Amino acid sequence: MAWDLLFTSDYGLFSLLVIVFVIGMAAWFAYFFSKNMRADEGRVHK
Prior knowledge:
Layout: H1 2-8, H2 10-45
Helix pairs in contact: 1-2
């Protein structure tokens, strides 16, 4: 029943969209911070 509500109702689909967006945003922040920490580390030690 819960899965039916998640995939068929308006608020369920919006909740799913928000969950996917937040997970995507977390992955992007992890990539962004990791890339900038590596770049900053290279500048400090040279």
